[in-house]
Specification:
With about 170 residues, the chain is α+β, with helices and mostly antiparallel strands. Helix content is about 40%, strand content about 15%.
């Protein structure tokens, strides 16, 4: 059996905790929040807080929901704006007005996924609500690029060279 020593022991310190116990304790600690806040070009009093830790499951789900069959070519195509908007909705942790976090009718932070957000935008789904709120496809893509640049998987959000099996809609 391997004799695990602690980091401290390697430096001549306390040996009461094994390296494995120490690593277990480190892994059990919650990760710090990694968020960014970005304003809206067409709604200057508002900003949004995004979680930059994006799971590939979020991207796959967004891509799957944004895939449609082109009626002319009968091929499946991905709408990058809808995919980006759905990813932004999934990563949204709160919408702010003049620096104050807004809350929905249940006193939860107002997000792009909140029922109240769908109601105020008079939209049937998140993709439509996002297009109404952002005001342009370019603004959705600008936020998506910013989030991608701040996350570890920015290339995937921008559709750059990424292992295609990671983004499969299956």
């Amino acid at each position: 059996m391997t004799d695990y020593t602690t980091f401290e022991a390697s430096l001549g310190g306390d040996t009461s905790m094994s390296l494995m116990d120490e690593l277990r304790a480190i892994v059990a600690e919650p990760l710090p929040d990694e968020t960014i806040e970005e304003g809206f070009r067409y709604r200057p009093d508002f900003s949004v807080v995004y979680d930059t830790r994006i799971d590939m499951k979020v991207l796959r789900r967004s891509n799957k929901q944004a895939t449609f069959t082109d009626p002319k070519t009968k091929t499946e195509e991905l709408d990058p704006v809808i995919s980006a908007g759905l990813t932004l909705a999934a990563q949204c942790r709160g919408i702010k007005r003049n620096g104050e976090l807004l809350h929905d009718s249940e006193d939860e932070p107002l997000t792009f996924r909140s029922r109240m957000f769908l109601e105020v935008t008079n939209a049937m789904d998140n993709a439509s609500a996002m297009k109404k709120w952002f005001g342009s496809d370019a603004e959705i893509l600008r936020h998506s690029r910013l989030l991608g640049d701040k996350s570890a998987i920015g290339e995937a959000l921008r559709g750059e060279a990424v292992d295609p099996t990671l983004l499969s809609t299956d």
